[in-house]
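Ligand: zinc ion. Inputs:
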Amino acid sequence: MPAAPMKVEQDLPAAERANGAVVSGAAVNGAAERPLGHGGAEENGRKRGREVTLPLEVGTRVMVKWRDGKYHMVKVIERRRLSAHAPDYEYYVHYMEFNRRLDEWVQVDAMDLNTVETENDDNKDDKGATTKMTRQQKKKIDESHVEEGHEEFDAASLREHEEFTKVKNISAIELGKYEMDTWYFSPFPPEYNNVSKLYFCEFCLSFMKRKEQLSRHMRKCDLKHPPGDEIYRNRSISMFEVDGKKNKVYCQNLCYLAKLFLDHKTLYYDVDLFLFYILCECDERGCHIVGYFSKEKHSEEGYNLACILTLPSYQRKGYGKFLIAFSYELSKKEAKVGTPERPLSDLGLVSYRGYWTRVLLDILKRHRGSISIKELSDMTAIKTEDVISTLQALELIQYRKGQHVICADPKVLDRHLKAAGRGGLTVDASKLIWTPYKEGGG
Ligand SMILES: [Zn+2]
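Predicted complex:
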């Protein structure tokens, strides 16, 4: 095992930039779901006794009692009447300290109205509390509030994103034997606007408003696995390749479904340009979708993965890692290096960092003699920028005597490998039966 530093034959500036973004994202998102305690309580006294006009305006900030029993500051994203003729409203709120997937509807009785802060506090010339905010005011709120995990967005695209995705529409789905709570807005067709739960056929991914419709569908649906070609089978695990052009409806349904659990991703209506790789657990009843990733048929930027998702009921079982590893196995077959499309979701980023760490450090641990970044990249199909950013984040690259070197102390490698966790389900490349996509080919 070489304790001596190995030479790196590549310059660093591009990856240093990439590295910065990746590290900050991971750190922020790691803490996203942890309640951070009660901030701003000291303001209660100051505001006490002031009149609050109901209903509250969109953009208002107020403390709301959360499921941890503590009060947390929220921003009101949307409001609606509790029923058509009721005078009372409920409010869709974003908890300032938490990830957007915890946004939810709350009622006034969960709020501490003494803590209400409106934008109008500073704009007395406004035409009263019921007036809609001016665009300028709205802009001000949005710009003063660039949330955790959103650093990669400029203010304009963030506004657009928030406007489009502000309210979760479907709150739960049924898929196969699972019922799952959803995390984010998904742009289902308008006729699904007023349903809170959708029923999916787990094989063709058709979705329905009522359970009886699904039961009727299941009696006549003849699919028992995703459409397309089975390109991998290992025990009860299968992967199917589905062409967005040949199976348009299936792939569009998959996108609607996936968006319920993915933030920050443009939903591609133009599924023609993509291949979808569907991971299934198979038994005597059929092949049950666990997750998927999509991949552009032709990527100018060298992306080997566009969207990746493990459905919530299958998370924490190593399937996300399996999908990432699988995407690199495809790249190896294509004899290309690849990288995931940016921005990555928070969960995606954590998984990728773990994957890169495990793969690269496993090689460094076993390797004797010097090795270059380029060689590491060729062996793994991991793009050089990602190799460098991973090693930099682990502080395994140092600048010594005018050269960048990998400092691969075996003890340090072991420590990092342990921290990265094990890879879970492994991809057996010998079981992958696949030829790269060719336009017009089979
Ligand atoms: Zn079906």
